Amino acid sequence: MKNKKLPKSIDFLSSHGLTVISLLFLMVITIIGTIDQKYIGLYQSQKIYFESIYFNITLFKAGGYVFFLPLPGGYTVLAVLFVNLILAFVFKFRWRLRTFGVVVCHIGLLLLLIGSYLTYAYSVNGHMTFAEQEKRAYFVSYTDNEIVLTETSAEGEETKSFANEYLFKGATLLAPSKKIHVEIAYFFENCDAIRNKDNLFSNQEYVLRKIAPSLETEMNSVGVYASVFNGKNLIGRYYMYQGVPVDFNYQGVHYSIYIQRRKFPVPFSLKLLKFTRELYPGTQTPKHYESKVTLSEKDRSGQNSEREILISMNRPLRHKGYTFYQSSFNQEKDQAGNTIKYYSTLAVMKNPAEEWPYFSCLLVVLGMIIHFTPKMFRFAKRQGKK
Predict the structure, then answer these.
(1) Distance separating alpha carbons of residues 210 and 222, to the nearest angstrom
(2) 231 CB contacts (<8 Å, ≥6 apart)?
(3) Which end of the chain is less packed: N or C, by CB atoms within 10 Å?
(4) Alpha helices, DSSP H only, in the chain?
């Protein structure tokens, strides 16, 4: 309901002017992020411009100084737009039957913003890659990494993983038993391994060499140079490279530390029975490919349950909140160039708000129909009288 005596702050925050300003900033962010994507890659562009509170635009450099313009990032703009819609909904809307369609439209927009937040905060995605007859009960992130620390002793084995937020210079990682800890001295965003001819900083056979990050973040191989301590006693210094574990023994316990793409478990398993591809005639270009899998899980009675499912390019598998799409494939060849094994890659997405955009857009369309249909009939009626 419109209130002429609103405080100035509420009046501004619920104003049409703030809506227009927010939409203009979204346009600016989209344009800048799209242009810069060519130079820094999609992942970095998304992080800097869209998943940020603010970002800086360099204007010019002079006398050793950099002059820049700070602009609000995607988080800030969307938060302001959300508050603007809520306050306008409460204080500015005229709650009448003829404005019911406008109300429905705005509810759709609010749900779209809420769904966007839920997608960012709670969705995970990655891929599941396996060969025929292999089984997987997890999928792997395209971009996120983790350090896995495993202790093996007479009492058994314990494993602890540290996600992306621990991969930075100065981070401290505590082992499951808390007997040792790892201090990261240097983090490599992208690197490769070379032979350690001079035993440089470590007695390992290899050291890591920093290389320029790829624009495709999923192609980067991260690494760290870290020190391992027992209290204040130095056990050793190690280079840790993606996919190459560091193993050592200390006080009767075997330790294994390695970096890998982050793994996400799923509450069931998929086994690839057969991968099939169809090529365009006379070419090596895939026309269609599909994976026949067995889905295994526990039923309500605790018994094993299995069923065969076909996943193709336009026929995803949706189960327990996870969606599996046929994404790509790879093949292993012998020295003669003959294919001896196929690997199928399924893109995996878990998004609690997957259906929200569709429902939100339907509400917006419905609201517009409700609002404009009576106006159209009234206009046609007036025209008929002329």
Answers:
(1) 9
(2) none
(3) C
(4) 8-13, 16-40, 42-45, 74-87, 100-122, 356-385
Residue that the structure tokens 């909140």 belong to: 321
Distances (CA, A) of 15 to 11, 100, 101, 266: 6, 20, 20, 46
Tokens of 225: 């140079």
Asked if residues 147 and 165 have their Cβ atoms less than 8 Å apart, the reply is no
Q: Is residue 379 classed exposed, middle or buried when 0-12, 13-18 and 19+ CB atoms within 10 A define those classes?
A: exposed
Q: What is the pTM of this model?
A: 0.80
Which pLDDT score, from 0 to 100, does residue 215 have?
Answer: 86
Strands 172-174 and 181-188: what pairing?
A: antiparallel
Q: Which positions ≥6 away from 201 have C-beta within 8 Å?
A: 207, 225, 237, 239
The alpha carbons of the chain give a radius of gyration, in whole angstroms, of 28
- For residue range 26-40, what is the model confidence (pLDDT) as tens digits? 999 999 999 999 888
Distances (CA, A) of 29 to 26, 114, 118: 5, 20, 21
Query: Quick one: DSSP state of residue 242?
Result: B
Q: Taking 70 as the threshold, does the pLDDT of residue 386 lie above it?
A: no
Q: H-helix or E-strand containing 292?
A: strand 286-298
Q: What is the DSSP string of 201-238?
A: SSSSSEEEEE-PPPSSGGG---EEEEEEEETTEEEEEE
Percent of the chain whose predicted confidence (pLDDT) is above 70? 97
Distance from C-alpha of 78 to C-alpha of 50, rounded to nearest angstrom: 10
- Say if residue 184 is exposed, middle or buried (CB neighbours under 10 Å; 0-12, 13-18, 19+): buried
Q: How far, CA to CA in Å, does 92 sit from each of 2, 6, 23?
A: 4, 10, 19
Write the DSSP assignment of 117-135 as a string of letters.
HHHHHH-EEEEEEEETT-E
